[in-house]
Amino acid sequence: MEHELRIDPRPAVSRESTSPATILRQEPAYQAFRMLQAGFIAAPILAGADKFFHLLTNWDQYLTPLVPRITHIPAHPFMMIVGVIEIVAGIGVALKPRWFGYVVSAWLAGIILNLLLLPGYYDVALRDLGLSIGALALARLATRYESGRPGTQLR
Description:
The structure is a single chain. The chain is mostly helical. It has one domain. The chain has 6 helices and no strands. Helix 2 packs across helix 6, helix 4 runs antiparallel to helix 5 and helix 5 packs antiparallel against helix 6. The longest helix has 26 residues. The protein is elongated. The protein starts with 19 loop residues before the first helix and ends in a 10-residue tail after the last helix.
């Protein structure tokens, strides 16, 4: 028994009958932008808040001893300040990913430099490099998609 496979060349949803917002949501680049934005809202806010509670880890261990020596701020209070900055950065990504994507990327570059001064944390520095590149990609995609309107390119 032979079956003939027929493929309908017409798309399941025509672009003429679909709203511009629906078309935008179907674009892989827009989906990537929204995934990166969600991640860079959640991660800094959660990591920043955990600087106060130490549920995930003892964050003080990731700070090079040079920082307290230079700033004259003990490690734990310094990391609490870092936590506040990270929370603000996460909120910033929610509101203005075009700008705060760059802020988060630069912040992660600073974290990488700090980690490179600590023996045994090079793997974490490498992961943070990946995150920094992701934040940079978010900022670049935001130049096109931050407004959320299809066809709108921010200048």
